[in-house]
Amino acid sequence: MERQLEKWQELTLNADDEWPSIGPQLFRFVKDGIPRELRPKIWMHYSGASRKKLENQGLYDLLVKQAEDAGKSNEYAAVIERDLCRTFPDNIYFADHSSTKIHMLRRVLLAFSMHSPEIGYCQSFNFLAGLLILLLDSEEDAFWMMYTVVHDYFPEGMFDTKMVGANIEQTVLMMLVYEKLPGVWAKIASRKCFWECEQENNLPPITLVTNHWFMTLFINILPIETVLCVWDCFFVGGGFKVLYQAALTIIKMNEESIWEAEDSVDAFQILQNSPKKIIDGRHFIEVIFSSPSISDDITMKDINRRRRQFLQRKKE
């Protein structure tokens, strides 16, 4: 670990002046893991959150003040308050409702709801903001990182009331399962054709599980150290594609168990429970990015093409 830290320190020694560009060399470093001490700075830079913070100095404090002034008239205030005590209740920093971290979480979520009223607040935001508060250097960093994730990483419409964006993501994922893992698809879809399910707007129940994976960025799905390994790749070069790659890898890892499952309900349980067992994050990343792998040919260009295809079909 010390040698890993030294390599990263050498790579980012002059980062304030000129950061290494995203490319194969940097991504090799990322796949090997970003040292805990350097994660905040590296995530903030490569995600674009640092730039947003710099270009909007003072805005976060203003949003917090606006949220305080709005009080209960903010339509999201009550649900945010309700979810505070549900955020990592076993974590010492969040266990006490009057703790400093809880106050920070409240301010970040309320500030976001003021800044992005078209989205406001969605369940899972509390866990995203909470984990960022635990990991980053400041409350304001957590806000800008959350803002960047929601607006720059997640596709448009992911958090609208009709969940159109979320449904399209799951349609794309299920199409990839249908193409790459036909035996798994046959089990989870009760042997229906993918296009029949898509046409009837009746995707397999397993999408309730996989949608939760995407919406939470695998928080409370994978063990925390594995989540951080996935996030390293997500924030530094991989982007939303990494969620597809991780999801397909998990499904592939459980392929034989799903084949042997009695029905789609058993398959549902397998995929709901199995990610908790992926405790070796580095190995999981190796599996995702090995060649050949279930996901090594996935590109954002292809994902975007499929998104457009299904969005158009929904409009017809």
UniProtKB/TrEMBL annotation:
InterPro entries: Rab-GAP-TBC_dom, Rab-GAP_TBC_sf, Rab_GAP_TBC_domain. Residues 33-238 form the Rab-GAP TBC domain. SMART domains: TBC (SM00164). One of its GO terms (molecular function) is small GTPase binding. This is RabGAP/TBC. It comes from Rhizopus microsporus. The lineage of its organism: Eukaryota, Fungi, Fungi incertae sedis, Mucoromycota, Mucoromycotina.
